[in-house]
Amino acid sequence: MTFPKYLCAKEVAAILDVKLSTLYKYIDEVPGHFLLFGTIHKFDAEEFHKGLKQFALKKTASKRPKGYNDNRHNL
């Protein structure tokens, strides 16, 4: 699958399935983000998709440490 070189904020919000205002709130944490002419938010498509894959892999590979007690309330 080929992606356009750069994505706009609306496209990224649609991919992430969030409101545009939510995207702007966390925009510095989104991989591939840069400012064009100091005011236009753009995203490098390749970096963005790489970052999403790494996030998904990290999310699925996380394990609880040995000895972690799910029963915190001793019920």
| Strand proportion | 15-25%
- Mean pLDDT, as a whole number? 77
Q: How are the strands of the biggest sheet laid out side by side?
A: 1-3-2
> What is the H-and-E element order?
EHHEEH
Strand count, sense and barrel status of the largest sheet are: 3 strands, antiparallel
What structural class is derived from the secondary structure elements? alpha+beta
User: What is the share of helical residues?
Assistant: 40-55%
Sequence-ordered SSE layout with sheet pairings:
Blueprint: E1 6-8, H1 9-16, H2 20-25, E2 33-36, E3 40-44, H3 45-61
Antiparallel strand pairs: 1-3, 2-3
List keywords for this structure.
75 residues, alpha+beta, 3-stranded antiparallel beta sheet, 41% helix
Summary of the model, kept short:
With 75 residues, the protein is an alpha+beta fold.
Write up this protein.
- This protein has 3 helices and 3 strands, in the order βααββα.
- The protein has 75 residues and is an alpha+beta fold.
- The protein has one domain.
- A 3-stranded antiparallel sheet has the order 1-3-2.
- The protein is elongated and about 50 Å long.
- The mean pLDDT is 77.
